[in-house]
Amino acid sequence: MSLPHAILTALLEKPSSGLELTRRFDKSIGYFWSATHQQIYRELGRLEEAGLIRALPSEVPVRGQKKEYEVLPAGGTELARWVAESQDPKPMRDPLLLRIRAAGVVGPQGLGPELRRHLELHRRQLAQYEAIEEKDFPPGRDAVEDRLRRLVLHGGIALETFWLTWLEEALAEVGDMADGSGPAA
C-alpha cells in the first residue's frame, strides 16, 4: 500500500510526468522504496481514477505527449492520513541470511566470495549516501523538509554501516570455519 503514498510524496514535492517520477525514484525514493517504470505508470492511473491526482492541462494537445501530474487536495489529505497511521515494522526477508542459515546444514563452502561481494555492494551504497549528504545537505539547511529528508538519509547510512559491520563479522566467522581455526563445536 506504500507505492501510492511514495508517488503522492514525490508529486507533492514537484509535479512530474511518469518518466520524471521513474528517474526520481532511481535517484532518491528508490533507495528505500523501489518501483519499476510499469508499476509507477499503473499506480498513476489508479491515483488519477481515485481522484487523488490529475494530469495537468497541456497547452498543446499532442498524441503521445507526456502527461505531468499534480496532487489534488484529496491526495494531500490521504497522504497526511497515511503519515499519521500506525503500522508495524515488516519482517525482514533477506536471501543472504537464509543462505547462511542453510549453510549451517550443508556447510559454509562458497559463502566467502558472496559475503565479500555483498560487503563491496554495501560499501558502494554507503559511499553514495555519504556523497548525497555532502551534496544535498550542506551545513545550515535546517528547514523542516530538509531535516526530515536528512533523517531518512541517515537511516540509510546507519543501515549500510550495520551491514558493513555484520558482513565483516560474518566473513571472519566463515574464514575461521574454512581454515579450521574457529571455536570447537
Strand order of the largest sheet: 1-3-2
Helical proportion, percent range:
55-70%
Gross morphology: elongated
Spans with pLDDT under 50 lasting ≥5 residues?
none
Number of contiguous helices: 7
Write down the Rg.
22 Å
Give the DSSP E fraction (strand runs of 2 or more residues). under 5%
Major beta sheet, specifics? 3 strands, antiparallel
> Which structural class fits the helix and strand makeup?
mainly alpha
Count every beta strand, where a strand is a DSSP E run of 2 or more residues.
3
What is the first-to-last residue Cα distance?
46 Å
- Overall average residue pLDDT: 89
Order of helices and strands: HEHHEEHHHH
Features:
mainly alpha, 3-stranded antiparallel β-sheet, 7 helices, PadR family transcriptional regulator, WH-like_DNA-bd_sf, Tscrpt_reg_PadR_N, Tscrpt_reg_PadR_C
